[in-house]
Amino acid sequence: MGNPNSGKSSLFNVLTGLNQKVGNFPGVTVDKKTGAVKLSETTTAAITDLPGTYSLYPKRADEWVAYKVLLKQDEAVKPDMILLVADASNLKRNLLFCSQIIDLKIPVVVALSMMDLANRRGTQIDIAGLQLQLGVPVIPVNPRKNKGISQLKKALEQTAERLHHAPAKDFIDVKALAAAPVTDLQKHFPQLSNYGAIHHLINHENFDFDTATQELIEGIEAANKFNPTKTQAEEIMQRYGRIKHIMQQTVVEADPLQKKLFTERLDNILLHRWWGYIILVAVLFILFQSVFWIAQYPMDGIEWVFGQLSGWLTNVLPQAWWSDLLINGVVAGLSGIVIFIPQIMILFGLITILEDSGYMARISFLTDKLMRKAGLNGKSVMPMISGYACAVPAVMTARTIENKKERLLTIMVTPLMSCSARLPVYTILISLVIPAKVYLGFFSLQGLVMMVLYLLGTVMALIVAWVMKWFIKSTERSFFILELPMYRGPRWKNAVTTMIEKARIFVFDAGKVIMIISLLLWALSTYGPKEKMQAVTAKYEQLIATNPQQTDELNKQRKTALLQNSFAGIVGQSIEPVIKPLGYDWKIGIALITSFAAREVFVGTMATLYSVGDDADENNNTLRQKMAAATRADGSKVYDLATGLSLLIFYVFAMQCMSTLAIVKRETRSWKWPAIQLVYMTGLAYVLSWVVYTLFK
After folding, report:
1. pLDDT grade, residue 259 (50/70/90)?
2. Residues sharing a CB contact under 8 Å with residue 11, sequence separation 6 or more, in sequence order
3. CATH number of 74's domain
4. Separation CA 149–CA 143 (nearest Å)
5. Which of 169, 187, 217 is the last residue of a domain?
């Protein structure tokens, strides 16, 4: 546990490495990260990373999660001890939370982070004296440089073996705050500490007690005229009084008039009213340029390998249904997954570096003013930025927004942010219709288009939020309080860990969906109504028999005709009149349908359709080559500039994700809002795609 920005997640990652998994706390959509750490040759610990919180008086959903775990009201997480991460550079504030946990009488080990930052500020901490005052082990750590980790593990093991106990004496005289009601409550709940009893009196309505227990506690409150607000205020005053004494005994702070730190000087530039926004746009530009520039070489290599593998298998395997399934179903589906791993890893690696550096929080601060004009606030930025990764956890992240109207608006517009699932679609379409030109030796035209697509989604999200704010009424007042973390150097190990984890999630989560749909699509593209398929086969066998010199050309035509008469072809052609005004053919129509399961399935669908149809030249082994060579009945290219741009716009705005709709329903507890989301996003996508196609045709 720990305050936000205390280094809690960094320490968790160092202790667990890759031995961690992410789930949800039961009953809520707050992330639960759990992991395993080997403390010694004989002891292994299971660690749960609880949401960051400032005190034991929760307000947000994620703070309630941490609170219920500490008060032993969570059935799934029962802590044996607490590893509390405290920021040495903000020790006074961190000790408030620390002292509250100590008074719950759960064994505590304090990991003192940010010691290097405290030293740079001229702050000196007497670790032994602080440990004596608190009565619990205090271990200085630096997760970035792996310092203090072995000592921390030893302290955790000793606490597990009860060599360190929770202090018998309260940090403050808790019982004196409400002596009579605490005594009465402990008669019925003898296992409660004095401070635990205080919290049962204050928050029992939020605990899963039966009616009789609730009435019992209510009776104790009424009989003793218990005042929760007064009790809380007196407690905080007493705690800060004791903390002030401890700070005087154990901490030497530098002159407050010392020269500004590097962080403050840098903030004067990065948070400037003009330069701040210019730098933000430049950072985003470099981010998207790098995704194209760095990933190009491994992507070309992967594409070449799958092209060669497909060609080799075609030559060595006999003509049979199972070889067709292997080549055009399995291999084509796999290529649609693996080729985008480099871009996904690079994107998430760069985003992790921005988060580690402390700049991501500055983006929230910079954009708060703009967000408020659209009916949101600065806290909406984090879910929206998370939406660049995936809309599902991003929608869940909106739970940290206290104002209900702003939370709902954030949920409604977050799917407009271009998630990583759109990245494969953007990549292949941009490479097809946008020339690979480079200006001034660095500015890639394809990277610029990619950045524009991301900005389009963001701008549209703000416009939609501004429109919706007039229809969603609320009288709640909105506040935005944000702590800006210190600037720090990137943790390369953490970035690599994140890259590997995101690639794994893409391959095994999105990959499973892509493979299943690819195999299903192979079946639908290979088989069709018996009479139609037999008629096509008979027709072309007769044509080949009478024109043997045109066998190769007729075989290609037969494959195309069989695909058109397959089950997939029939579905695609049935919706073609609806999508034709956007410049799409029936194959693109099939991709639009299948990619509703997950946007990235578009590429797998194209890989399967163009492998089964195989209407490209023999030398066109890669998917991009096959799509580039695809033509309409009149001989014109399918993927010209107008169609390519129209498709890109469609995928920027369309709600092509069942999972997002499901999670919006779960968060809003109604089908009304996901239905509105589906209608307005599909309408936007269709109209704007038609406009773009009309302009560029």
Report:
1. very low
2. 83, 85, 111, 113, 141, 143
3. 3.40.50.300
4. 7
5. 169
